[in-house]
Amino acid sequence: MLAGDVGLAEELAQDALVAALEQWPAHGVPANPGAWLTTVARRRAVDTLRRMQRRDRGHAELAHGLRTAPDDEPDVPDPDDLDDDVLRLMVVSCHPVLPAESRVALTMRVVAGLRTDEIARAFLVSEATVGQRIVRAKRALAASQVPFEVPTGPERAARLSSVMDVVYLVFNEGYAATGGGDWIRPALCDEAVRLAGLLAGLAPDSAEAHGLLALIQLQHSRRDARVDADGAPVLLHEQD
Fold this sequence. Notes:
This protein is mainly alpha-helical and about 240 residues long. It has two domains: about 5-70, no CATH class; about 85-225, no CATH class. The chain is built from ten helices and no strands. It starts with 5 loop residues before the first helix and ends in a 20-residue tail after the last helix. About 25% of the residues are buried. Mean pLDDT is about 80; it is low at about 75-80.
């Protein structure tokens, strides 16, 4: 959110992961890994923004002010208690300035971490089409200079339908994987069920949210019966 650019935010997140791979084996995993990664990414973002501003504007006064500004500003508490990091990012990414399919594809790539071929399979389109949608979405967000902040009230409610689409498609990828050696990806299924539960709690009067949760819980309950001990798929009439 601090970066204000989706592409830059992806690079900063990758830098934070590299830092973790370098430091955690030597010093141990911190008590709160998510907070550690967020702090590192934020500091990298501040450093990057300082370099960009010094390069583009060349104002010594501005550079001095940025050097002396505190790096760790306190987080502003969310008024609606949306404190799950993944769900917050999904709500932010599903910005209404983007067409519905583009915002869902972008969120599946940037937040859920799915590959382009997996997203293309979800939409039943080519990888090239998905790649173009994601590129155009990033450019549109940058050109519109939309604020990377978590909306509240009606503005948030208007985005939840797209967030539900993302959660549903993430579960589908976990339920029947696009590729790889495993027929099912349990971690994706578990995360989709968790997010669907949060959405149902966030929108207790939404029949769509509760319907989504019920649907994926029903399918998820059959997960262990769909593969044998070796991970091979079991036909429906042979499932226990």
